[in-house]
Amino acid sequence: MHELLLYGQVPAPRHDQVLKILAGVAALQPRRLLARHIIYKPQRAPDEPGSHLRRGGTQAIGGKNHKQPVAKDLYYSQLVQKLSEEDLNRSGPQPSNGSSSTGGTGSGAEPKWTIEFQDVPDTGDRGVSIRMTTSTGILSGDPHAYMLSNGPNQFMSEYYVEGHQIVHGNVVVFLHRVLHDSSGTSPKANLPKFTELKPFDPSGAYILEAKVQVQEFNNTNVLEAGVDELKRFQSQMKGCVELSVPDRLSLDTRVKYKAAAPSSKKAQPGAR
Amino acid sequence: MSGAGTTTEVALRPWPAPVNQALSKEAIHSQIGQLAAERGHLRGITEKALHEEIATGKDAPKETTGQDEEDGEAATHEKKNEPTTIEKLEDIFRAKVDMVSALNVVAWNAAGALDLVALMLSRDPTKVLDNSFSAHFKAQNVPKGAFGVDRGTPPDRSDQHDESLRNAEDERRHQLVARGSSMDALDWATDNILKAATELETGVRKETKYWAEIMSISEKGWSIQRSRRGVRHAPFAVRYGHSEASDHFKARGLAPLRMDRDGSIILDPALALKPKVLRVRISDHGRVTGTSKLPSKGEVTELALENSIQLARDSFFEEDLYHEMCLESRQLVAYGVEIRDSAIHIVSPSLSNPATHRTIMIDCILREETSQGSHEQPLDWLAQNVAEALRFLLAHEHRMRRFQRSQLPHPLTQQKRTTRTPPLLRTLLSVFSHVNAVNSVSAYLAVLARTFSSAGIGCSLQVTGESSWKKLTTLIRESTRKDISAVDQLFEVFTKHLDGVVTLSLPSSSGAEPEVITIATRTYIGPPTFGAEHKVTIPPSMASVLNLSSDQKRDFKFSSSEGVTSYLDWILSLDLTHSLLLELYRGRATLQSKEPQITIGSKVGKRPIDKDVTIEVADGELRASLKHSSEHDSSGREGTFVWDGSNGQPTLQAMVKSWVG
Q1: Which ipTM was obtained for this model?
Q2: Where does the protein principally reside (chain A) (predicted)?
């Protein structure tokens, strides 16, 4: 599945106003969403760029073109947990069978945990940012243990997202901000209180994300229809929020190669 | 001149000269010289003296009169030679020099004036003035247009008395005129200001009234919105349509609030349409036996506009409802739904009496028409309930559309999503046919159970009309879907398929856990059942009676209740003979066929006699008949007994015992 994206910034004092405008535009009441994102990084260090290229002479028998193995990029991936208000306002410790550690939900209900992967945005210039994403719902089991063994990955950091979602036609508008807490070495078993979380942006500004999901990416008509709808929304919001294409590399989810010490760089909570 | 030489009497007169032309310098000089030569001096020469001289004949010397100028000059030369005085000549010469110099000055001034005028005119480049400048001026090389002239203030002449008097008079007049005109202007300005004030006042009154009405509309809860730009006199519009109505109606649900001359709001044509209302009628055999009432009007407000907005909204809803049902009725022709005379006709058997040919007619009529003929009819309640149910269903559909809209959209694909028509008539039909189907089966079984109990056969009946209706409250309480309101969950129960269960315990089985026949009724207008369907599940013991293998399915589907009842009749009679009586007369009874007939051997005297007992269950009656299997023997009785549920009848066992011993 592919996502067409546009981003805008809303300063904290304008948040309520913009939310009202969005509700008016979409003729719907916004839905409050809370989510917890846990970022994982592959344990393997990425190959040195260009290391796959042939160096020096070769002893291979001539005439045969051996395909050079392409160095595979390594990506950050993340685990998203849907939260409710009660999850972050609970005073005591989490119940032992709490949903913080297991993804088990009843059949038919929406999964609480999802594994999300986002590719680097396309290089094409259509006026919107296009990237490939996959989202896999976890119906049962321990998501964290799965993520660690699958890869194998290592825990990087976690952050929380709070905001409102409004659906306008095929455009999903998400007015949100990133909150964070002092991070440890593993996901917290007990969720922090909502009041303890601090905005990642100290000014408390909000991000407006407008997203259209496209299933048949290779079909030009479908893609054009999605891009058009997103751009129509962009022009509709002109004067209220300026929606723009984000810098492609700021949405890079690849693990950077570091020549010297094994990378201990912290993943940016905003890098998604 | 002509013949002058002949006469001596010649008058001295000046040389005729052009009137306008002054004598030239040389001519003056020569004349003065001539005069001095003639007379010796110029003193004493006046007009009078000259006249006298002419009169007396004493004249100038003869030789000069009538002569040519050469002659005159010659004469003067002669005179010069005369010894008058040398001073005289000197005086004359001096005067001549003075005169020449004065003339020079004059000529120079004139040339200067000409130069000045020419220089002034030379500002105009079209004028060719080169010849007008004097040589002296040309030599100075003054650029053309270097000198200009303009009108300035006139020189002050106040020193002159009359001038000042006249000025004072002018001044006074000017002041008078100025005062008059300023009074005029003030008058005009006052008028204008007053006019503007009244205009402003009416404007304020207009706006106040308009805004008061807008406020009153807004306070009643109508959603007011800015109308598009370019609509004059209507800055606001009221949205009275439902936001989730179908596209055709969504566009209609907006009326601009126009301002009329005195500020009140003009009724928009959309609001002034005659309101319509849905009418449901029940007709039995073509006779109308029930009509739905007018929906309640809500609270009455004093403002005509609000009333009409409300009426428009109600009418809008009813029209939308009718429109949706018309669309839906096209898919339901197979179910006996048709549109005739712009009314939807639904054929539905009466709930109480299936034989009745009952039709539900739904149409959309003008609101005024409903007031006539409001006499009570027996089935008004049914019509009213049907109408209310349809309205509730559409409202539910609207809410569900909004809910659907708020959900995450599906990723874009090429496939178009089909929008289904809301199940309004389908729900109505399925509820009717379900209740009908379950009721007809259970009513029949209730009669049968009474008959059986009167015949001394134990058999219990359990009826569940609709399984989900039974546990409605727990269903809603335990629901995990928090984002759908309880009312909508309630309606969702109705729009899904309906399940009814009737269980009847087998007469042959008794005890704590009797074996039961289950008749499950499932109704859905659409695939897979396309209406009501009964599923009869028979217990394992019955399966062995029917010689079904163990792996065969023990449930049978019937689409009509008649099929179910006749099947049940057969099954029950089989059960009575093949299980109950067989068990009762174990050892004596044999089964001859698969018919509900049992042959029981008995001994009358020494001869064994086989007696056939046939059990028949039909139309809620239990019929047992005794027949002798061997024709030659007619000693025994033949008889039939019918149990119809009335009390005081012997039991089946007793009856059979009395027959077979």
Answers
A1: 0.80
A2: nucleus
Structure tokens at B517: 């026949």
The number of C-beta contacts closer than 8 angstroms across A and B is: 41
Domain boundaries in chain B? 224-403, 425-572, 589-660
Contact A214 B405 (CB under 8 A): no
Contact A257, A47 (CB under 8 A): yes
Q: Which of A162, A170, A149, A159 is nearest to A231 (CA)?
A: A170
Which 8-state DSSP code applies to residue B409?
Answer: P
Q: Chain A residues with CB inside 8 Å of B405's CB?
A: 28, 167
Q: Across the interface, do B409 and A214 touch by the CB < 8 Å criterion?
A: no
Residue B234 burial class via C-beta count within 10 angstroms: exposed 0-12, middle 13-18, buried 19 and up? middle
Spatial separation of the C-alpha atoms in residues B217 and B307, rounded to whole Å: 10
Whether residue B60 is predicted with pLDDT greater than 60 in this model: the reply is: no
Mean pLDDT of B97-126: 88
Neighbour tally for A10: CB within 10 Å: 22
Considering CB atoms only, which of B408, B414, B480 is closest to A172?
B408
Judged against a pLDDT cut of 90, whether residue B50 lies above it is answered with no
State how far the Cα of B514 lies from the Cα of B303, in Å rounded to an integer: 69
Amino acid residing at A116: E
Q: Are strands A206-214 and A2-10 parallel, antiparallel or unpaired?
A: antiparallel
Task: Kindly report whether the peptide bond that precedes residue A46 is cis, defined as omega within 30 degrees of 0.
Answer: no
- Which CATH code for domain A2-45+73-251? 2.40.320.10
User: pLDDT tens for residues A211-259?
Assistant: 999 998 888 999 999 999 999 999 999 999 999 998 888 888 888 887 6
Which residues in chain B are closer than 8 Å to A172, comparing Cβ atoms?
408-409
Domain assignments of chain A as residue spans, ordered by start: 2-45+73-251
d(CA B557, CA B323): 36
| Cα B573 from Cα B577, distance rounded (Å) | 6
The reply to whether B402 touches chain A by the CB within 8 Å rule is yes
Contact B368, B274 (CB under 8 A): yes
Q: In B460-577, where do the E strands start and end? A: 461-464, 498-505, 516-524, 531-537, 555-558
How many Å apart are CA A33 and CA B585, to the nearest integer?
74
Closest Cβ–Cβ partner in A27, A212, A226 for B243: A27
- Best B412, B414, B416, B481 member to test A by mutation, with max A CBs in 10 Å, is B412
Average pLDDT, chain B: 79
For B202-229, write each residue's pLDDT tens digit.
989 988 988 888 888 888 888 888 877 6
